[in-house]
Design a protein that fits this description.
Number of helices: 16
Number of strands: 23
Helix content: 25-40%
Strand content: 15-25%
Distance between the termini: 62 Å
Shape: globular
Structural class: alpha+beta
Length: 501
């Protein structure tokens, strides 16, 4: 009897394997962190081979708890998006460390491509501005800078994928017949997919000089791609695949146009379901594929992407030593009544939506002798809420809707000080669901729908329920004053880095 659906949740800092039951409750979970590699300022890498080893380890850990592969109806994959892997199809070995979505080494390439047609040169086709964020320029950099990579690619000996594709290929056999495929949501983050055709664009592939042989096939987000061939999951269908933020949208059951969620993780990502037509953005957002279930028409979303949210708390812990554990930041921030007029703009790898300023860098402003470590901790938390309001205002402008509440998930939603400040700053209620592991749950839902574990979306909506709701309690004048000061701080971060040419 298939009692569970599994989800591999491969994130920016760790990999998890989670089993869910039919009510969406967690039955088992294992997690393992992987190394963050910083070869020089602005460069961020992961060892894809380490990620694959960790994936196997967390699966084996859950299975060792008395679960059999026959207990699992299917497995879904959700993943950090845009992170780019290039590997040898014959040996399965990566040619280089993966270039992480936060990596900014392609900034000069962005400027070079923007000289003809501007930053929005490819936006009409892809929904994306030219930015260091997306995969196409990362892949181009690898092909041009790893010795022999381009020649091997043209000979058909190397494969490209985002992390979903890398894991699926390894799970289903690797060099011995592994399935080389990505889903529409991850494909939409490469800057090589045409949003209308949902296929690789010949014009974009040519513009970025990508050999077509390296590209995976593109499939739906909910479909059976192949059976696992690793011992712990042998024979279990891999049947769902969603980029992490689209997975959270599905996990929050935001299936209707106008429904939105915000995920507070390493970065912060707000998605608004816009229905079955892509909505172009004029306010600095991304147009992206939200999900596609089987043969149904795809749903699209507007997305606001914030590079640094929870990562700023980790920075306070690891780089400054202000706290010993990330969870301690709330208690430290509560030691002061307010931010003491201190603002922290965490533009460590530039600013994403709605600014798209890749030459911005982090600034801490408003410091006086009065300011202390608690003010800095509070400013760090508040930075996430300010950035979220920036995105929400852009979203309301683009979609011509007014959000009446914001559904939230991710690791930072346990921070009640942040959640109350977020409600205060937005002026709308912030709602945390009972099940906050919505990213993994979304991947599980996609896999479960593909194999009939859940019959339809109505079943998934019934699983969603409120854990806590924060209502705004701040006066409008105070809200406006704080937000105005934030914008002053943001402007100070612009153009810190000068381009090399």
């Amino acid at each position: 009897m298939n009692r569970y659906i599994g989800a591999i949740d491969q994130g920016t800092t760790s990999t998890r394997f989670i089993l869910f039951d039919e009510r969406g409750a967690i039955a088992a979970l294992a997690q393992r962190e992987h190394a963050q590699i910083y070869p020089q300022p602005g460069w961020v890498e992961h060892d894809a081979a380490e990620i694959w080893r960790n994936t196997q380890a967390v699966i084996e850990q859950v299975i060792a708890g008395g679960i059999r592969a026959t207990d699992i109806a299917a497995v879904g994959i959700t993943n950090q998006r845009e992170t780019t892997v290039l590997w040898d199809r014959n040996t399965g070995q990566p040619l280089h460390n993966a270039l992480v979505w936060q990596d900014t080494r392609t900034a000069d390439l962005v400027a070079e491509y923007a000289r003809v047609g501007g930053q929005d040169r490819f936006r009409a086709a892809t929904g994306l501005p030219l930015a260091t964020y997306f995969s196409a320029l990362k892949l181009k950099w690898l092909l041009d800078n790893v010795p022999g990579a381009r020649a091997k690619a043209q000979a058909g000996d190397v494969l490209f994928g985002t992390i979903d594709t890398w894991l699926l290929w390894n799970l289903t056999g690797g060099p011995a017949g592994g399935v080389h495929l990505t889903d529409v949501t991850n494909a939409s983050r490469t800057q090589l997919l045409d949003l209308e055709t949902l296929d690789w664009s010949d014009a974009l592939v040519e513009a970025f000089t990508i050999p077509r042989a390296v590209l995976p096939r593109i499939g739906a987000s909910s479909a059976s791609y192949g059976a696992a061939r690793i011992a712990a999951l042998r024979g279990v269908p891999i049947a769902g695949m969603l980029g992490d933020q689209q997975a959270a949208l599905v996990g929050q059951a935001c299936f209707e146009p106008g429904e939105a969620k915000n995920t507070y993780g390493t970065g912060c990502f707000m998605l608004l379901n816009t229905g079955t037509r892509p909505v172009p953005s004029s306010a600095g957002l991304i147009t992206t594929v939200a999900y596609q279930f089987g043969d149904e028409p795809p749903h699209y979303a507007l997305e606001g992407s914030i590079a640094i949210a929870g990562a700023l708390v980790q920075w306070l812990r690891d780089n400054l030593g202000l706290i010993a554990k990330s969870a301690e930041v709330e208690a430290l921030a509560r030691q002061v009544e307010d931010n003491g007029d201190v603002y922290f703009v965490p533009a460590f790898s530039g600013l994403f939506a709605p600014y798209w300023q890749d030459t911005a860098r982090g600034v801490l402003v408003g410091l006086t002798r009065y300011a202390n470590r608690a003010h800095i901790a509070r400013a760090a938390l508040e930075a996430t809420a300010y950035q979220t309001r920036d995105v929400l205002e852009a979203m309301e402008k683009d979609a011509r809707v007014t959000l009446t509440e914001l559904r939230v998930d991710g690791g930072m939603v346990a921070n009640e000080l942040l959640m109350q400040f977020q409600a205060d700053l937005l002026g709308v209620p912030v709602v945390r669901p009972r099940i906050t592991e919505t990213t993994a749950l979304g991947a599980a839902y996609a896999a479960g729908l593909a194999v009939g574990y859940w019959a339809n979306r109505a079943e998934l909506k019934r699983n969603w329920g409120v854990d806590k709701r924060w209502k705004p309690a701040m006066e409008e004048a105070e809200r406006a004053k704080l937000y105005g000061a934030w914008h002053k701080a943001v402007r100070r971060s612009f153009d810190w880095v000068e381009r090399s040419h």
